[in-house]
Amino acid sequence: MGNFMNDWESFYIDFPSVGTFPSNGTVFLAPTVTSKLLELHYSYHHFFQDFNDNSKSYYIPEKWVPHRTMMNHLNAKQFLYVMEYVYQKFNVKRAGIEKLK
C-alpha cells in the first residue's frame, strides 16, 4: 500500500451530519462529500482492483455511501435513544486522513 499512499497528502474531512442505515440499526457520521474524498476513494479502488471480487459490495465506486460508523446492531429502543441524544448534543466533527492501514 506504500506506493498508493505516496501520491497522497493528508487532508481534513468535516462530518456535519448524522445518518442511519435503519435496516441493521446503524448510526454513522456523514461527511461533506468533496472531490478530494471521492478521488481518494476512486483511486483506492482502481489501485486495488485486482483484489475486488465482489461487484455487489456497498463500498465500490458508484455504490459507496461515505460514512464513519459510530454504532450498529441497535434495537429500536437504543436507536431512538441515540437519535434523541444526537438531536440535543451533536456538533460538527472534523477528522484528518493521514494514512491508510
TrEMBL record:
GO terms for molecular function: ligase activity. Signal peptide: none annotated. Keywords: Ligase. Coiled coil: none annotated. InterPro entries: Cyclic_Pdiesterase. It comes from the Bacteria. PANTHER family: PTHR36039, RNA LIGASE_CYCLIC NUCLEOTIDE PHOSPHODIESTERASE FAMILY PROTEIN (PTHR36039:SF2). This is 2'-5' RNA ligase superfamily protein. It comes from Bacillus clarus.
